[in-house]
Amino acid sequence: MDSPLSADVAAARDAGLTRVAASVTLDELAAVDAEVLGKKGSLVVLKTRLGSLGTVDEKKAAGQALHAATQAVTEALTVRREELRRAARAAQLEAERLDLTEELVGPRRGHAHLVTQAWHRLEDVFIGLGFQIAEGPEVETDFYNFEALNMPRSHPARSGFDTLFTDYHGPLAEEGTVLLRTHTSPVQIRVMQTIEPPIYMVMPGRVFRRDTPDATHMPVFHQIEGLVIDRGITMAHLAGTIDAFTKAFFGGAFTSRLRPNYFPFTEPSAEFDIQRPDGSWIELGGCGMVHPNVLRAGGLDPEEWSGFAFGFGIDRMARERHGIDDIRDMYSNDIRFIEQF
Ligand code: PHE
Q1: Which of 51, 55, 164, 297 could lock 180 by a disulfide, CB 3.0 to 4.6 Å apart?
Q2: Is the model's pLDDT at 103 over the cut of 80?
Q3: Please, where are the H alpha helices in the chain?
Q4: Which of 163, 183, 209, 229 to mutate to test the pocket of ligand 1 (most atoms within 8 A of CB)?
């Protein structure tokens, strides 16, 4: 028959196990640990009663029962502690979670500016035609913006560009030779200097001119430059590319034409226009066969390579597409205007 001590051991063990299972915080668990296994714990104090037992066998049996009970409670404490730690860690992670993909849904959700939209659409269309994208610096040197584009100092065409110069002069450049690029054409030179032909590239970017803002001009605007360099490239490739672009961008009912013009960096040079289905024309940009001097400045042999280039305004494309009368409206940051597009 069980001695009262072994009954008390079993009762203390079961009470301990129940309380361990019922603990929901680590603090609660620590309290249970102290109350059952601490110095004056319910199982520990029972040890003092071993001495009062009669036979050695009784003492031994009770001692073993006490040891087993202590082990059972210790093990339950360890398992439960681990569970609670894991739960606490998970709760902390959840509480500190930062959802970087969270989007605001609702009527006031933002979108890209209409010039950015036009920029991206142009890139998409040219990528579809097999072109790659490159970009160059907005602060340029006289060499890239003019000299390498066959406009040496005192070339009359320079004055047409209304250039904004920086006042930088120092170890990198002489006074009056660092400027805000007036067109994206300097990127042609940078591309030729770094990439082996064949080259099929478009180069979008921001450009600057000393202009007073009016309905059709802004001192800061955007252009996209095209450059093709390969063997045996002719004016027919240029006209075909402009036309393929026109149909891909505006739609199959639009056509294009080239009109003779002059640019120092292309020879021959042309202006290109797009015809709307109603027969009216949009003047879009300039183009031509890359001048041999420009090929040389880009490090290419004009006997081996030939190519064409074109450039046009992105802002104008956006204005054209959305029928905006005054280009200044696009930059007024009037949200009522901007959010319509
Ligand atoms: N860079 C010229 C401009 O800004 C456009 C152009 C680019 C013309 C390429 C010919 C070839 O007016």
Answers
A1: 164
A2: no
A3: 4-22, 26-37, 56-95, 114-128, 142-145, 186-194, 235-250, 292-297, 314-322, 335-338
A4: 183
